[in-house]
Amino acid sequence: MKRFFLAVTAPLLASTLVAGSIPFPIGNARAQESGAPRLAQLPRTPDQVVECELLIVGGGLAGTAAAYESLLMGHTVCMTELTDWVGGQISSQGTTALDESREQRRRLFYSRGYKELRDRVEAKYGELNPGQCWVSASCFLPADANAILMDMLADAQRQGGGELRWFPNTVVKDLSLNADGTHIDEVVAIRHSAAPGTAPLNTDFLSEMIEDAYTYENSARLSKEIIQFVPAGIVAKRGEGDVERRVDWFVVEATETGELIVLADVPYELGLDPKSPLNPSSPVTERDPYCTQGFTYTFAMERTAEPQTFDVPDYYSIYEPYYSWERERDSLPTAADHFDFVFTYRRLQNPRPRSSDRNVFGVPRASVGDISMQNWTWGNDYRPGTEFDNLILTEDQLAASGQLEPGGWLGGLRTDTLRKGEENAIGFFYWLTTGTTDSQIDDRFKEPDPYNRYLQGLDSPMNTAHGLSKYPYIREARRIIGRPSPGYESGFMISEVDFSWNDFGSEFYRENLDQSTYTSMRRYLAGLGTVDTFLPGADPNEFPVRTRSRIYPDSVGIAQYAIDFHPCMRDYPAEAPGNIERPGVRQAHGQAYPAQIPLRAMIPQRVDNMLVASKSIAASYSAAAAYRVHSFEWSVGAAAAHTIDFSLRNGVLPSELVENPASQSPMFEALRAELEASGNPVMFPNTSILNEDWGDWRPW
């Protein structure tokens, strides 16, 4: 089977394919059954013991933002990352096309670090959009994103007097909780390097080395170092004297799939939420943990002057029936127009002199020397959605595979699905250049275009020998269930109706919701008119509908993007000929108001010294489809850093700051004031509860 563009001899590791029943509800019962999980016996004495005030697990944009702000505030920060790049979405995952809402971008209303990132991109290239892509205001090369962010962290360290202890190629293997399970005492990680005499890292596909990376023992491919992270044990200094810390340190969950949520044994959700008044667009009545959004291995391709020849992989025929331009567009009458549409969509490099020939989006058409990154729904998106191929393993599947046992963690992913995502991505390049069929529209819109080169090698845009991104772009993760609070007796969650532009008054909702659910949903949307909805004879179809997002008294950050789905496929396998998207998932897809990040969404149940600063915040499936883009990740990371700094300085737990979420305590008001004073906004301009005119805030 021809999977490789370069000679790679590392063997495939065993798949974690384990079928299991739906774990409903997801909310790990292990703690109730056996007490707090304990650290497994290590195979040897740790090679390093490292002290931290903050341990950030995951070096994506959220983790980088948390480190950046913490360094400016003078903290000792440890940060681990599976790959060797910081930045996640814009570096190791290759999606260096910033997903931004129109009005937020027009006003440049972002966290200070995110604005600095954009400014540094513009300074490096002399323009914000060197790729002249049309999907974003800024498309650029992944390696440059990593370099810019590393420079930002170094500058923050110098400016603030903090210390960054950076651990690339490192995964968290295990952790220890205190006796009552409320405090993470220590974390054990494994850092890997290429074994002597073997090829450099970033040679192998992720599916071939990920389980090895989570194993303590050295292998023929990887040498391992065991690192034990422990609290620094520093007493906070204040002008009026010492303040005793309520916790010794904080651990920040910033992984791409919510790994610490499993290891710390806190309740979480995964996949489709059941239909409810708060998530009325859901297509299911019982949770489906297998249907998560598709993941994408991105790659880069270069436009060439001469036609290229291609060695088509043996597996290409398996995935060819999936690929498509997606739909016919009146403005794209020919196959060449469709190719240019996709190539310039996320073009990362468009060197001068640029073509004067413009396409329908007003950007230069593809020309020789252009580099394009591919991230296409009916292309290199891989969208499994059944118990036989889901990527993020459920609680039952993890238990069956032994990953919930002390020392058994292997990352919580199905490696065979990673492999198929890799194959699907490489196959998409061959379809772009050689394909003649289209799974969704007329084949006449697809013809070969051999004037393209697949970019691979350690000096390529993705910095991998195989040319795929170091890690797939993950759109959805495990999502914590927040702590119970008034109105959220089962645990706090951000929901679809909290910020969707939809008024939910269409025939679909009247026909598909029972009367009680429909009335409760409409009442929830009434805003300041809620009291009138309880009047005798009040007709839910006549209830007023607020034209804004929900306002959270405990907001610590901002987010705006459309509710944007890349739904799972209905059948197994995802690439089966004639397969379709899971019906009904896109019902919630659409415009969304500017939203807030409530602190309650970042605080897991039970564990007091862990904050979630990633896509794993407490949000429903539909809400997570909007709370996943670049600027959100930066804002939630900054919020985590300031909350931790405030907690350490004032001897207060984050959960204590929101004990009464209906109002702001003086302590929480002080935290919000510090966030805003530092250039990290907690709400959008002119978006108060009294303002019902948010019409300018359409994201697209």
UniProtKB/TrEMBL annotation:
Pfam families to which the protein is assigned, alphabetical: FAD_oxidored
Record keywords, A-Z: Signal
Xref: PANTHER family: L-ASPARTATE OXIDASE, SLL0471 PROTEIN
UniProt KW Coiled coil keyword: no
A molecular function GO annotation: L-aspartate oxidase activity
Signal peptide bounds: 1-19
A single BP term in Gene Ontology: NAD+ biosynthetic process
UniProt name for this protein: FAD-dependent oxidoreductase
Family matches, as InterPro entries: FAD/NAD-bd_sf, NadB
